[in-house]
Amino acid sequence: MAVKRAKLAIERGMQLSLQEELGWEAELFGQLCETEDQSEEASAFLEKRAPKFAGK
């Protein structure tokens, strides 16, 4: 998910001003912070175990 969003940011960023690109990047980052995988990663880190990602 993160790689897909990074590629999207790069592709679209070539057509935007710096200010617009920074806003777009922040929006994509926010979307990633709301995923189930991000919650799993944080829980796994706190529990000192390997994360089990679901791609969601």
UniProtKB/TrEMBL annotation:
SUPFAM superfamilies listed in its UniProt record: ClpP/crotonase
Stored InterPro entries: ClpP/crotonase-like_dom_sf (IPR029045), Enoyl-CoA_hydra_C (IPR014748)
Similarity comment text for this entry: Belongs to the enoyl-CoA hydratase/isomerase family.
Protein's recorded name: Enoyl-CoA hydratase
Taxonomic placement: Bacteria, Bacillati, Bacillota, Bacilli, Bacillales
